[in-house]
């Protein structure tokens, strides 16, 4: 969990040394707009107490002012995504539903299966786009429903863990 944020790297290093002296393991990371000191969840309360003691000591020194390291009161884990996963799930359902609808409507007077199905020989000849378009084609509505349920579950939880964009890009690439 992120326990300190500062735009000044020196301040974060000072906090890190204080935590190290107290026997609290920490990591120093770069975050947008500055730097942060990160500790494991089990050490957050001890780390915040140590940081507050360091801040009180700094305040008691004459002439101590400037950009000091700001403790994070809530505790933020910069490695944990704040997304719910719903954005990617809705997008996934919309894309599969739209392509299925277009296929059954014979949109653009095109044979959607012939144009997009996976054919290894054609992919080897340079039609790499078939590796993605084939993911959107379904033989019938049962096949579509199965992919929506299973793919939706995997994508939803991956979206919560990684963020929707990274999760769905990883699924497509995989």
Write up what this structure looks like.
- There is one protein chain.
- With 174 residues, the protein is of the alpha+beta class.
- The protein contains 8 helices and 4 strands; from the N terminus they run βαββαβαααααα.
- The protein has a 4-stranded antiparallel β-sheet, with helices on one face.
- The protein is elongated and about 80 Å long.
Chart the SSEs and their pairings.
Layout (H helix, E strand, L loop, with lengths): L1 E5 L2 H13 L5 E5 L2 E5 L5 H17 L9 E7 L9 H19 L7 H5 L3 H5 L5 H4 L7 H22 L1 H10 L1
Antiparallel strand pairs: 1-3, 1-4, 2-3
> From the helix content, strand content and strand pairing, which structural class follows?
alpha+beta
Rounded to the nearest angstrom, the radius of gyration is: 26 Å
Low-confidence stretches: 72-81
Mean of residue pLDDT values: 81
The arrangement of helices and strands along the chain is EHEEHEHHHHHH
Largest sheet: 4 strands, antiparallel
Helix content: 40-55%
Q: How would you sum up the global shape? A: elongated
**Order of strands, widest sheet:** 2-3-1-4
Number of helices: 8
Question: What is the tally of beta strands?
Answer: 4
Strand content: 5-15%
Alpha-carbon distance between the termini? Answer: 30 Å
Gist?
55% of the residues lie in helices and 13% in strands.
